[in-house]
Amino acid sequence: MRGDFVQVITDALGEDLDKPAGMILRHNLVRVLENSMRISSGENESEIDRDRLDVRLLEASKKDTGWDIFRLDYRFTEAALENFFSDRVMNRYMRIFAFLWELKRAEHYLRNLWEVQRSWNASLNSSSDQLFLQCAFLRVKMNHFILNLQYFLVYEVLDSSWKTFMEELKSASDLQVLLGSHANYLNSITTRALLREESRDQHERILRILDTILDLKELQDQIYKPGAGFENRTRAGGMMDTQSALGKLEKEFDSSMAGLLESLNERTNDDNLILLALRLDFNEHYSVVGRERFL
To answer: Closest Cα partner for 186 from 97, 70, 79, 123?
Structure first.
């Protein structure tokens, strides 16, 4: 059975995209894209669609990695479609892609963290099992956030907006109506995915949570590296210092989650965001954290 195209390409590109942006070669990424299409669900797309899918690299800043500058692009050769998908429209698609790509990056890292954590079992003893549990528990909490946010975006935002767009297309009588329906489709996605100005607070809070996931990856990379035993790494780095850093990171994650949920719950006019908040905090753990912040 062929795997999901997005997961296949993130796994295939992950090592390259971790490199500094200046070391990224576009032709290497294009080759990986083509191969990922062949071995995944992307093979089910039409040949025309496969040929149009391309890689775009943004201009890089000093601290960027490949993840920051990589974008999947869709090329149009027909003049009519180029007029329909103007630069302004494509920039909106790119912003949506960038947000979803950040989530896929975080999911990719969390999946790799679990693979590393599984290998710790052979090295655990009474002095290191607490550190393992700290890492594993924090990863589980972060994974819960990522999976539920992605579920919301795919089914409550993208899928729902697409179905509405398809229904409107059935009754589109001319080009202007079609353009209006397409604009409504993009507006629906950017609004409900928290990408508009009125949702700046919620969006920035989500990005801060994603930063904590990257911080966990960096911290675990310091604790455990292939070829260096888990116990040796923890002794060399200082067990107490490592546990303290993990504890601080978990508090930062919990505080960021509590802030996001509080902000979402303030949007009382949006039932979808209230439901998202319920999914993210089904056991009210972060509600308790939020109250403790003010004690």
So the answer is: 97
Cα–Cα distance measured from residue 81 to residue 175, given in angstroms and rounded to the nearest whole number: 12
Beta-carbon contacts of 50 under 8 Å, excluding residues fewer than 6 positions away, are: 37, 42, 43
CA distances from 120 to 80, 180, 218, 225 (A): 56, 55, 17, 11
- Please tell me the predicted confidence (pLDDT) of residue 185: 97
Among all chains, which residue has been given the structure tokens 């009125």? 198
Of the candidate ranges 116-125, 178-187, 253-262, the one whose mean pLDDT is the lowest: 116-125
**What distances in angstroms separate CA 254 from CA 105, 164, 191, 194, 209, one per listed residue?**
20, 36, 26, 21, 9
- 55's enclosing H/E stretch is strand 53-57
CA distance 98 to 71: 7
- The structure's pTM equals 0.88
Which uninterrupted H or E stretch holds 57? strand 53-57
Return the structure tokens found at 168: 């409107």
Q: Which residue has the tokens 């909106």?
A: 92
Compute how many other C-beta atoms are within 10 angstroms of the C-beta atom of residue 14: 16
Q: Quick one: CA dihedral 244, 250, 254, 256, positive or negative?
A: positive
Q: Which tokens is 118 given?
A: 């599984």
Choose among 83, 272, 273, 97: nearest CA to 182: 83
Report how far residue 86's alpha carbon sits from residue 7's, in angstroms, rounded to the nearest whole number.
29
What is the model's pLDDT at position 251? 95
Strands of the chain (E only): list them: 53-57, 70-74
Specify the DSSP class assigned to residue 73.
E
